[in-house]
Amino acid sequence: MSGYIGRAHEREEFRRILAKKKASLVTCQGRRRIGKSRFIAECATEADHHLSFSGLAPREGISRQEQLDAFTETLAAQTRVPRVRLDSWPAALQLLASQLPPQGSAVVLLDEISWMAAGDADFAGHLKTAWDAHFSKHPHLVLVLCGSVSSWIEENILRSTGFVGRCAWQFRLGPLPLPDCAEFWGRRGARISAADKLRVLSVTGGVPRYLEEIDPARTAEENIHDWCFNPGGMLFREFDSIFHDLFTRKAGTYREIVRTLVEGPRTLDQISTALGRERGGSLGAALEDLELAGFLRKDAPFDPATGRSRPREARHRLSDNYLRFFLKYVDPQRERIEKGLFRATALENLEGWESILGLQLENLVLANLDALLPRLKLAHTPLLNAAPYVQRQTQRRKGCQIDLLLRTRRSLYVIEVKLRQNIPASVADEVMEKVVRLKLPPGQSVRTALVYAGALAPALEESDAFDFLVPVERLFERL
């Protein structure tokens, strides 16, 4: 498979598993469109044999028999098995096992496995039995269970007592790092500014399927208009497809949860208040589902002095850039977009555009610590804590909010992230005030950094307020 970008570390891990002289059960999780199936297909090019199956997408009334029929149809297309009608998963899985070649390495992918299991509450049990009785006996087999509904894999495979000790590896694919994202602009990338790339990534994040749609010959604004503000654009109806396929009947509830986070992170109490719901089990479970699906992150602040986590003060952050952009700018304008009334609207004229871009840049920085740490001379320094930080105001201390706080054995790193056309010198005073408000033990050093996109005020470049000034284009560079 040519033209594959990224995942070098994960591919090396898969190569190691494939080289083992025993069968391996592997799970692969991640957000829709993150490239799970493509990743497995790329890894499988190094195997002697590859079989791939996928569950049918959910719809009203879909039955177990329809899933079985789709499975056996695919099996017949990839092997010499005649098209037969099977009425149980034990029979289907046993038939699959009988078709595995006795010699050579093999990769078998059961994709969208939660869909495949629809209509059969015992599917996971049947799979476990088939693994023990058949698949585990193959000396060079990698059986991959893959799906976008990560909560199903967590509940039925990873946390199931039936599969204890059977899973050899868990791949969780996240957004691509910035240096890999830059490759989607191809040779033209060297001529495209970091600002132009950031505007695209403010919508796509590091989601490979979205990045594949980039037309490098067009500006960021032209690409975004094509995807989001055109009724036929890929990202115009993407949100509905994602939530329907992943959450089915709960889609409406989950949609309202993510909507509460569009303007910034919130605690569980703040989310429950905004929704008018109790903060009990169902809301907590929904937030966990959204986090497992790759749309949210829960950031637990830590005590700067001791490093102890403060889970009760954890804030849920909309970490998926596409979701925030869609809910903020596309969803409220659906009717106008469908009538073709939004084509001439400049992105800079969208309400709150600069502030939303700032939140999207924060997400990108938080997802790319590996690229940031060397720029802070921390590539080989053990990192004890890393998270956004919020210090609540009390009678004894003032509050403050820090985009990213890092803690090493001897130092704290206060990191400010700014995206503005012109970044004023007053940013230095703002950060110095945050440092003053931090409650620190004796002997603790504080270092400051500004990660920025835009033009720095001359006074800011000459100021000693920051130990590190990191232009965001540096994060696109490979080390």
Beta-strand content estimate: 15-25%
> What is the overall number of helices?
21
Number of domains: 3
- Envelope shape: globular
**How confident is the prediction overall: mean pLDDT?**
93
Low-confidence blocks of residues:
none
Superfamily (CATH H level) name of the largest domain? Winged helix-like DNA-binding domain superfamily/Winged helix DNA-binding domain
Main sheet characteristics: 5 strands, parallel
Give the class from helix and strand content and strand pairing: alpha/beta
Side-by-side strand order of the widest sheet: 2-3-4-1-5
CATH class of the largest domain: Mainly Alpha
Number of strands: 13
- Tell me the Rg in angstroms: 24 Å
Question: Can you put this structure into words, describing what you see?
Answer:
39% of the residues are buried. The protein folds into 3 domains: 8-173, Rossmann fold, CATH 3.40.50; 180-357, Winged helix-like DNA-binding domain superfamily/Winged helix DNA-binding domain (Arc Repressor Mutant, subunit A, Orthogonal Bundle), CATH 1.10.10.10; 368-476, Trna Endonuclease, Chain: A, domain 1 (3-Layer(aba) Sandwich), CATH 3.40.1350.10. It is of the alpha/beta class and 479 residues long. Strand 12 (445-456), helix 21 (458-462) and strand 13 (468-471) form a beta-alpha-beta unit. The strands form 3 sheets. It has a 5-stranded parallel β-sheet, sandwiched between helices. Helix 9 packs across helix 16. The chain has helices spanning 8-18, 36-44, 64-78, 89-98, 113-116, 123-133, 150-158, 178-182, 194-204, 208-211, 220-228, 238-247, 251-259, 268-275, 281-292, 321-330, 334-338, 353-366, 369-372, 426-437, 458-462, and strands at 24-30, 49-54, 106-111, 141-147, 167-173, 266-267, 296-299, 315-318, 385-391, 400-407, 411-423, 445-456, 468-471. It is globular and about 75 Å long.
